[in-house]
Amino acid sequence: MEENKFKRTTVTAALPYANGGVHIGHLAGVYVPADIYVRYLRLKKQEVMFIGGSDEHGVPVTIRARKEGITVQEVVDRYHNLIKKSFEDFGISFDIYSRTTSKIHHKFASDFFRTLYDKHELVEKTEEQFCDEVTGEFLTDRNIVGTCPRCGAEGAYGDQCEKCGATLSPEELINPTNKNNPGHGLVKKATKNWYLPLNKWQDWLKQWILEDHKEWRPNVYGQCKSWLDMDLQPRAMTRDLDWGIPVPVEGAEGKVLYVWFDAPIGYISNTKELCDAHPEKWGTWQTWWQDPTSRLVHFIGKDNIVFHCIVFPTMLKAHGDYILPDNVPSNEFLNLENDKISTSRNWAVWLHEYLVDFPGKQDVLRYVLTANAPETKDNNFTWKDFQDRNNNELVAVYGNFVNRALQLTKKYFNGVVPECGELQEVDLKTIEEFKDVKQKVEALLDTFKFRDAQKEAMNLARIGNKYITDCEPWHVAKTDMERVKTILYLSLQLVANLEIAFEPFLPFSSARLREMLNITDTDWAQLGSTELLKPGHQLGTPALLFEKIEDEAIEAQLKKLEDTKKANEAANYVAAPIKENVDFDTFEKLDIRVGHIKDCQKVKKSKKLLQFTIDDGSGVDRTILSGIAAYYEPEQLIGKDVLFVANFAPRKMMGIESQGMILSAVNFDGTLNVTTVTGSVKPGSQVG
């Protein structure tokens, strides 16, 4: 950051839709890196404001309301409160987390639109748009689905393909249909809307992005370039909907502001809400959004790049009074167990559920998501990697070093920081290894390389572990306590440095470590110093900073995902096509009867077969073999009345003659269920 140019930084994090909770994809893509950056700036004592909020307009919330049979307001109230609490519990340190249904936002967004309208920066156009041919309802981009023209994925939305991330328009979709009424056809009908003429600003955008911001991440710069290499088209800023902010123009009845016009303005209206409530601390909202000495940074996911780098800046430029984003550090997508995270499929790790399943382990998830941050390409989260990083890095490296240094100090010096004696070569080498940590971490954080910055912080713990292992103070204590003093003095300085270095990344652990060190605050300027803890300082009580995560906890999470997968398969099950018709005479040839299972046992040396003894009503027991051993224990079936085909020719399997076939239904997941009868039916009764 150019400190000589900017006096303060306005940091925004993408507004999540209030139609569901927050999952690890959101955290890795937006909120954890944003929080790291804000905490870092605060530690450097720079002026920074961190703005968040719920996006409560648009189609996703209306779809959720329709699905649950409740009002849209009830939906957004529920999820806004859930999201806000989840962020608070997880340590995402917003200065304000508000919502786009607030009165302040409604007025602010409405006034912003009216300013553009009065300045003739919007174009009124009547165009044909898709609507449902049965209901006549105009369909928003999110209500239209079809085949993606870029990657061929089915179920792409009219504004975006969630598989490849392409930004689309409904006209580009192949075979578009109504998402909520698949049986209804689509027709086009004329309607009037107001458009932002992006084409008018194309040359300016090319200069501003492609020439003036070559330092932006390659994924952001590249996506912007691909858009700007095409001819930009006017984009509608209003929609035919009944949920949203009414368009403040005569003749716009029944229309609301487009969610991608309304939502980013929420950053500004939320700033106004905060400043109006606490002017003594924050001053005026204009200082943060209109003063050229203020820096604006947007943290977003890659699906929002075009809106934050092209659409919103054009809105701000057309208005004329606002600063523009200085950087937009967008991440790629995070997958879950090698599959794309999906809210609609419930394929996600939800933050509010994680906080229940792993209480007190916020920092473990923060650490793993940062270590796997999809900064330059899509990345993958697995529960095994989560466990390994916790046990092998946080516990075995960071926590182990801290515990050894503090416990040895307690053992030999009653928890008092000892004096530093004469330095030996190993001491000087260790000091040399970590003296530049501040410059290294800062250089990485200033350029939004959070994954590498966290690695540098962890490297301090590796240096400390190696130092204390090489010096072996537990052995030296037998002969030279003065030397032990120096070893533990330097070890404790490294521990204090770890508390500072990890504060932006692992705030809960750093707070616990401060208690153990008996210090009250963190001074970023002192990072790299060997004089953080003075000789004679009384330390607090040592405790484990991290704890191992056992296999059972991971297996429970994998079971939850497996259950989700099965539920999705059940929900999406479509019966196989009906086979070709057969005449009645052909059916009559099958002799299907009721049989009573007198005995059932596993067939030796076979994993699949069960051997049944069937009372078929003839007075002579019948033996039937069936390949259902994977789905039933023999004792579960004894005494059941089942259906079987009686006139199949006998067939030998595993040396046993099978005299028929027991009928089973094949479930959606491939499991088999034996067909039984209800009520009392005599063995041998025919089905027909």
TrEMBL record:
Residues binding ATP: T343
InterPro entries per UniProt: aa-tRNA-synth_I_CS (IPR001412), Anticodon_Met (IPR041872), Met-tRNA-synth_bsu_C (IPR004495), Met-tRNA_ligase_1 (IPR023458), Met-tRNA_synth (IPR014758), Methionyl/Leucyl_tRNA_Synth (IPR015413), MetRS_core (IPR033911), MetRS_Zn (IPR029038)
Coiled coil: none
A GO cellular component annotation in the UniProt record: cytosol
Motif 'HIGH' region: positions: 16-26
EC assignment: 6.1.1.10
Biological role stated in the UniProt entry: Is required not only for elongation of protein synthesis but also for the initiation of all mRNA translation through initiator tRNA(fMet) aminoacylation.
Family indicated by similarity: Belongs to the class-I aminoacyl-tRNA synthetase family. MetG type 1 subfamily.
Full protein name: Methionine--tRNA ligase
Lineage, top ranks: Bacteria, Pseudomonadati, Bacteroidota, Bacteroidia, Bacteroidales
